[in-house]
Amino acid sequence: MKKFYSLLALMLIMTSVSYAQTFPCGDGQSLSDCYCLGAGTLVADSEPCSFDSSQEQLVYILVDVNDATVDGDLDDDSVVAASSSGTFTGVPTGDYVMYQLTVGTNDVVSAGDDLATLLTYPNEATGLATVNGPDCDCPDYNNTGNLTDDGGNGVPGATVTIVDSDGNVIGTTTTDENGNFGFDDLDDGDYTIEVDYPAGYSGDDTFDISVTDGGSDPIDGGSTFDSTVCESLLTEASVLCQDGGSYKVVITLDFSGAGATNGFNVTSTHPGGFNGVTYGSFVDGNFANGAGFSYTISSVDYPGCVVELSSNSIDCTTTDVELIRFDAEAIEEGNAVTWVTATETDNNYFTLEYSVDGVNFTPIAQINGSGTTSTGNSYSFLHDSFETAISFYRLSQTDFDGTTKYISDVERVERAAEELSLTNVFPVPTADQLNIEFIAAKAGDAIIEVFDLTGKLVGSSNVAAAKGVNPASIDVTNLATGTYFISVTIGNESATSKFIKN
């Protein structure tokens, strides 16, 4: 059976400026970053060399090479960072070489590993990569400062203005992703630094400095971050099991409720995971069955909000029938039992069993299977001869060779007032067409609506519903990758379910 996992959290992230690098199998420009005030970002954005994704993965390492082009770094040939995406942020001033390694899917490559050992893997190397090299012509910032929040994180995007003693504006700048700012070529005298903090921050907004011999003491400004802004950040990590037992992770991100527009910074600690900046939802993987994942995500606009999405182990073991959904619902005519399969292999028939106590089950129906198919199928059975108000159901599957396995959990049904129910949503995930089945207690006009995680309506249609089971479809081709809700409304009754757009 294919399995589906979902982790829901609130979070936020930070930004960076990136520059490209040529690898032998792609095109690009020289790798350098002139950040001057702080740490830079190095990115390999060219097309990687080909590899067998079923047995191999690409890993990038950044090596602080022994070179005198840029001063101030270690120059000890150490592996300072590893990344599956080829994106390295927060790189100090120095000279480096980036390597692209082709390693096994279960191999782990980390900062601090021995370079000679790592280079026994097939590899390709860039030329010299520099941060704040001599070609950058960085100003001599003799008047600098740093703004941090109460968690010690730099405050990016703050507007900093310097005013002389006569009230004249001498210059304006913006703090970088680490909260750094600087001014150069100031005349001796007294000045006031004025800070306009970005949304979510509050703190000291004026600082007095005195410039002597062209320099002044560094400014360290403190602020408080209002963590309630994080409540509008929606994130979700969902696992999609693949053929062969591997899996992919769908990361759904939305921070539009706070007006954040500058993207998210993603750091993963599991082998082959994505590291870098993204501006929306993304799919990561494949990852090996049984392996876990761990992502740390923050926002460019509000770096004070950070969330971790992780799982120690994912089990994507499959059976002959990959059951997506098994549900039992009470309707006027009886108990409607429905199930949906993603694939079936040598499936002769299903057996539906019924119990009044959840322990002792009796077969009540045998439904033919679909043999071998990679196309999703839906099945249903109306049980109208139950004995008590509470009923239990479970499902088994029998192959053509007679092998029988239970493939569902036990579903409990309690008879209650008539209501609208959404019993099937498939396929999950979907790339284009989403199919649903809903049970209506009475005939009427049904409104089908699709909402994103913020509650924004992104699609709708109307159908005429009959009393009982109703099928319907909606086109979701144009939706972005992520998690959505689908709702069916008839009169003042509604039923809602969740699905993933791949």
Please provide a written account of the structure.
Residues 1-22 have low confidence and may be disordered. This protein is mostly beta strands. The protein folds into four domains: 1-138 and 226-318, no CATH class; 143-225, Sandwich (Immunoglobulin-like); 319-416, Immunoglobulin-like, CATH 2.60.40.10; 419-502, Immunoglobulin-like, CATH 2.60.40. It is built from one helix and 38 strands. The longest helix is centred in the N-terminal third of the chain and has 4 residues, at 115-118. The chain has one helix at residues 115-118, and strands spanning 4-9, 32-33, 40-43, 56-64, 78-83, 87-91, 94-104, 123-125, 129-131, 143-148, 159-164, 169-174, 180-183, 189-196, 201-203, 206-211, 219-225, 234-241, 247-254, 264-268, 276-278, 282-287, 293-299, 306-311, 321-331, 334-355, 362-373, 377-383, 390-399, 404-406, 411-414, 421-426, 433-440, 444-451, 457-465, 468-475, 482-490, 493-501. The strands form nine sheets. Strands 25, 26, 27, 28, 29, 30 and 31 form a seven-stranded antiparallel β-sheet that branches. Strands 2, 4, 5, 7, 8 and 9 form a six-stranded mixed β-sheet that branches. The radius of gyration is 29 Å and the shape is elongated.
Q: Using the CA coordinates, give the radius of gyration.
A: 29 Å
The average pLDDT score comes to 80
Beta-strand content bin: over 45%
Oligomer: single chain
Number of domains: 4
| Helix-and-strand structural type | mainly beta
Tally of extended strands? 38
Helicity level: under 10%
How widely separated are the two ends? 19 Å
Are there runs of 5+ residues with pLDDT below 50, and where? Answer: 1-22
Give the overall shape, derived from the CA principal axes.
elongated
Largest sheet: 7 strands, antiparallel
Q: What's the helix count?
A: 1
